[in-house]
Design a protein that fits this description.
- The protein is globular.
- With 345 residues, it is mainly beta.
- 12% of the residues lie in helices and 41% in strands.
Length: 345
């Protein structure tokens, strides 16, 4: 794919771009950008928290990445920076803390309503740092009633709660939710992303060795057959275990990190997580010549001779690198960070 990458800092084009590395790994993690360039006009400039935009091609109307510089280093011949997307203002070490007490809280608010209110009042008081135009509700809203904490990070409050949410209208079709960022022409808005249905939703693209795949590797793990969860009910701590199906590849379990206040709720969540993990046993990484712009959770078809790999998969990660005149892109399929549960074997 032929591109002419461009980086803007506070709306000004950076000269002599040397390298760029963009990472988007999903699972509620922030997008990251690192770059190096030679620009005499920026040598003595304070770059911390400056707005930075990365366009994969100079003619693109929307940046592939928009965020804020968190670190920079200047040497005799170049400037190096690292940046993260606007969610850093909700998650960074210097983010505005939130305390939820019996007197001051967000009881009755959904996650979306909390985000809209908090960002508008505390983050965007002087200028729009985090967009709110695309904040959406999930199918079954999660409320912050009775949630209390002292000086916590707002993003932890959101991500910890969204990780507990799964759409389980059909117990055999389980879909997770995650927190994402949607880059527009003028701002970047936080939003909630629901996993697509592999059996019903339409893939955005097909990849084959003759069209798109440069090289590919994969690993397959044994699916979990049992799960463990814990919590407190009626003042008593409990640990509950649930086994689902047989274990043709050996017994492997998962432990849910969240705490529950009801055993039946814990069992429902164990079942949902086991089914979800059993549907995603292949983790594929492929270097590609197309598909650079596809968002995470988009569906793609692998049209390959190996019947074990042929089929539809979710994009769960993107890595794009630029050096000199060369651009490489790798996509991760079905691979997610192990944050929600810890595997037991």
């Amino acid at each position: 794919m032929q591109c002419n990458p461009v980086i803007l800092i506070e709306g000004k084009t950076v000269q002599s771009l040397l390298t760029v590395s963009f990472q988007d790994t999903g699972s509620n993690t922030l997008q990251n950008l690192s770059a190096s360039f030679s620009d005499p006009d920026l040598e003595n400039t304070q770059l911390f928290n400056k707005l930075i935009e990365f366009f994969l091609d100079k003619y693109d109307g929307v940046p592939l990445f928009r965020g804020y510089i968190r670190q920079f280093n200047t040497t005799d011949d170049k400037i190096s920076i690292t940046a993260q997307d606007p969610r850093i203002f909700l998650s960074g070490s210097d983010s505005f803390p939130i305390s939820l007490t019996d007197k001051n809280n967000y009881d009755g608010y959904t996650l979306s309503q909390f985000l809209y209110d908090f960002i508008n009042e505390e983050i965007n008081s002087n200028s729009t740092l985090v967009g709110i135009d695309n904040i959406n509700e999930i199918d079954k809203p999660s409320f912050l009633t009775n949630i209390r904490q002292i000086e916590g990070k707002p993003y932890d409050l959101i991500s910890n709660n969204i990780e507990k949410k799964v759409n389980t209208d059909d117990p055999l079709k389980v879909f997770d939710y995650s927190v994402g960022i949607l880059h527009g022409s003028d701002s970047s808005s936080i939003n909630f992303i629901k996993q697509k249905n592999i059996d019903e939703d339409i893939p955005v693209c097909s990849f084959s060795y003759s069209d798109g795949i440069i090289k590919m590797s994969y690993k397959e793990r044994a699916p979990p057959s049992f799960g463990v969860a814990s919590g407190t009910s009626d003042g008593e701590e409990f640990v509950t275990t649930f086994e689902y199906g047989n274990a043709p590849k050996g017994k492997v379990g998962l432990r849910l990190s969240e705490k529950f206040d009801d055993k039946s709720d814990a069992l429902d969540n164990i079942l949902a997580r086991i089914i979800s993990e059993q549907q995603n046993t292949k983790e594929i990484t492929m270097q590609v010549s197309k598909g650079y712009y596809y968002a995470l959770e988009s569906l793609v078809t692998l049209n390959v001779p190996d019947t074990n790999l042929y089929g539809v998969y979710r994009i769960t990660g993107r890595n794009i690198s630029y050096s000199g005149s060369s651009i490489t892109c790798s996509l991760s399929l079905n691979k997610k960070a192990t944050k929600i549960s810890r595997y037991l074997s």
